[in-house]
Amino acid sequence: MQNLPNNKKIILFDGVCNLCNGAVQFIIKNDKKDIFRFVALQSELGKEICNYIGIDQNKIDSIILYNPGVAYYYKSSAVLEISEDLGGIYNLLIIFKILPEKLRNYIYDYIAKNRYKWYGKKESCMIPTPELKTKFL
Length: 137
Hints:
It comes from Flavobacterium hibernum. With 137 residues, the protein is α+β, with helices and mostly antiparallel strands. The protein is built from 4 helices and 4 strands; from the N terminus they run βαβαββαα. 39% of the residues lie in helices and 13% in strands.
């Protein structure tokens, strides 16, 4: 896929979800090594990336971590890979890798299913501030 930075990992997220937007802000704040770039799943580029890696957006209710040319992860595996890349204390979350992925994803899916009810939803995707624009593709 062209026009993607090959030295950055791309996080695709639900651009209208308040929980997801909070997670993106948290990752940006803690991304000391400038590893990540962000794309809303609802954007044209988000749809294009999903098509490219073979994910049906109508069947996905998840965060996706895409490492261009290497691999992609979604649901709990994406969260754990992101926490590992953030390093520091967040590295401790990798202990959850001992749990079967099916169990981790069951918990992830429960939260994902209720995220709008618990955290709310925006009318449109977040518009990044000028300082944060470089973090978004």
